[in-house]
Amino acid sequence: MSEILRTIASKLYQGEDTEVSALVQQALNAQLTAQEILANGLIAGMNNVGRDFKTGDLYVPEVLCAARAMHAGMNLLRPLLSVSDIPTAGKCVIGTVKGDLHDIGKNLVRMMLEGAGFETIDLGVDVKTETFVAAVREHKPELLGMSALLTTTMVEMKSTLAALDQAGLRQSVRVMVGGAPVTSGYASQIGADAFAPDAATAVEIARRLVG
Ligand code: B1M
């Protein structure tokens, strides 16, 4: 792998968005393809972020900076990549459930999924059951992700699963849940396909569920 791609991966890891942007431009000027830069520079760097976040060697602010650097690089590559060039790992609709305004963790999960090549549709916070169902119907994602940070709102996950079932959509989508009060026991109790305790594991699980 060329030196510049290794440097892009390492600057992304360090959250240096301006440098990542300049290096991506430099790589393009040196005739590297957008595809190569994405796979061996940006995504490679983001995979390292995921690995070290999981082991506790990186913290939330560092991951957010890396995600910002990823976006800076992607802004240059996006116009050069036709839709079919972008390695889509799968499509994921994600949101924080009704009554819940916490979105830092959900955003991290979304950004890490994007870094891993997933196309994401972020419904934001305080997402009603009907909105989740409508989004699954409209976008036909392989994966639906729900986040909840309050013990009083996690029950909304169960309602959404029931509503998906009622709408005849439950079999068409895998459902992953997460958030501080959510556990794997709760996930299986409500019939979700998976629980992830953190954003890095969410990516691993998403790959497994969709792959
Ligand atoms: Co609130 N809050 N908050 N809060 N808040 C908590 C969650 C709380 C535990 C604090 C406490 O009392 N110790 C408590 C909940 C108690 C409970 O129900 N068990 C609480 C409360 C009570 C409240 C209010 C009710 C306070 C009030 O107004 N009286 C209120 C509710 C508002 C509402 O939502 N309706 C409220 C408000 C707020 C702020 C708006 C001030 C702010 C949110 C800002 C924002 O998100 N934009 C806030 C914050 C920041 C917190 C704490 C301090 C931090 C949450 C956070 O961002 N963590 C939190 C205490 C805490 O958790 N230590 C607290 C960092 C984030 C990276 O972690 O979200 O867990 P987390 O996400 C992780 C994993 O959980 C996982 O991956 C992420 C990354 O590794 N994950 C997923 C998350 N979603 C996932 C989805 C997946 C997979 C993995 O698949 C789809």
Structure explained in plain terms:
- By secondary structure, the chain is α/β, with parallel strands linked by helices.
- The chain has two domains: 3-84, Methyltransferase, Methionine Synthase (B12-binding Domains), Chain A, domain 1; 90-210, Rossmann fold (3-Layer(aba) Sandwich).
- 55% of the residues lie in helices and 11% in strands.
- The chain has nine helices and five strands; from the N terminus they run ααααβαβαβαβαβα.
- The chain has helices at residues 3-13, 17-29, 34-54, 60-77, 104-115, 129-139, 155-166, 184-190, 199-210; strands at 90-96, 118-122, 143-147, 174-178, 194-195.
- Strands 2-1-3-4-5 form a five-stranded parallel sheet, with helices on both faces.
- Helix 8 (184-190) links the parallel strand 4 and strand 5.
- Helix 1 (3-13) crosses helix 3.
- The longest helix has 21 residues, at 34-54.
- It is elongated and about 55 Å long.
- The model has no long low-confidence stretch (mean pLDDT 92).
- The chain binds CO-5-methoxybenzimidazolylcobamide (B1M).
- Residues 60, 94, 99-106, 108-109, 145-147, 149-152, 176-181, 196, 198-199, 202 line the site of CO-5-methoxybenzimidazolylcobamide.
